[in-house]
Backbone:
């Protein structure tokens, strides 16, 4: 007996099956705002410590907090009352021009690397569009295919990380 092959229909495909656009403008919006968490894995803590030439324990004490057994980067309240990630810095980029930058961009955690292709934002077009109102990099720039989107969504270590 042969089984009938059932072809997927358009309605089986995720709403983002034709891909999504995203290019970070490095505006820093997602590194500040209301109180939040930047979860950091054990291997990422080692990478941070190595990058900053610190002991792991020193790094944990200075930059991390533990919530429910998980480690998050600390936050600092800025003069506007927003909660900045501890690694967000405002720098001068020209006369009278300032910019917020991630000072550990090369070793930023998976959570930061995979934004905005998070499960919660991909669940519906509405969730994606709502997030895009605070992130000028969404819906513009580089086109990501369905496969790229889902591999970022499901990543459990840095995309492309080869263990160096
Ligand atoms: S809010 Fe969006 S564009 Fe701005 S830094 Fe974050 S990811 Fe990049
Ligand atoms: S680690 Fe860098 S990219 Fe991630 S939230 Fe902090 S400042 Fe932003």
Residues:
């Amino acid at each position: 007996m042969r089984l009938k092959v059932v072809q997927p229909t358009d309605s089986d495909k995720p709403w983002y099956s034709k891909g999504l656009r995203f290019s970070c403008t490095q505006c820093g919006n997602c590194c500040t705002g209301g109180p939040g968490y930047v979860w950091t894995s054990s291997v990422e803590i080692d990478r941070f410590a190595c990058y900053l030439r610190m002991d792991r324990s020193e790094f944990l004490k200075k930059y991390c907090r533990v919530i429910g057994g998980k480690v998050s980067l600390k936050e600092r309240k800025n003069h506007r009352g927003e909660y900045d990630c501890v690694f967000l810095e405002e720098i001068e980029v020209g006369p009278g021009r300032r910019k917020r930058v991630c000072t550990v961009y090369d070793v930023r955690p998976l959570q930061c690397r995979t934004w905005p292709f998070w499960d919660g934002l991909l669940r519906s077009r509405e969730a994606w569009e709502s997030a895009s109102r605070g992130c000028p990099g969404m819906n513009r720039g580089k086109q990501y295919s369905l496969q790229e989107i889902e591999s970022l969504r499901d990543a459990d270590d840095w995309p492309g990380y080869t263990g160096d």
Summary: The pocket of iron/sulfur cluster (ligand 1) is lined by residues 24-30, 115, 135-137 (CB under 6 Å).
